[in-house]
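Sample entry was shown:

___
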Amino acid sequence: MKSIKRASMMLAILSFMLAAPSLSAQNSSGEKELKEGKIWSVEYIRTKPGMADDYKKYLAKNYMQVMNKAKEEGLIADFILLEGMPSNEDDWDIMILIAVNKYGDMDGMDEKFDKIVAQVFDPKDEGRQKELKSRFEMRKFMGGKMARQLELK
């Protein structure tokens, strides 16, 4: 069994080594084969036990309104929500991805989102404000990172 796993690993490494030159930044004629794309902010969320359905309802009711408005106004280029099965107790189950076209688009992002939230939700609506704050009771932020999308030509 170990020899099969080892052979599979060696085959994967060899395949990568053979393919790697074709994934280089430039081809033999000097043209770039990879184009830099959108900048993605990635957040890893772990819903608390028994709260996954409530958190997804919150996302559908509240988060989607804000993100759709942000996309409509050109503040963001795109957003994606992913759900996955955690591999251990320290792993995420909801991944939130938000894209902008360039790093400079993130300047003043918090203030811009505050304005959108104020447009979408009445700041005087205490029920809604309580609902927005409740998301922290339903989930734990596990981490995040920024990544640039690479587009193959």
In short: Residues 52-72 form the longest helix (21 residues). Residues 33 and 153 are 5 Å apart (CA to CA).
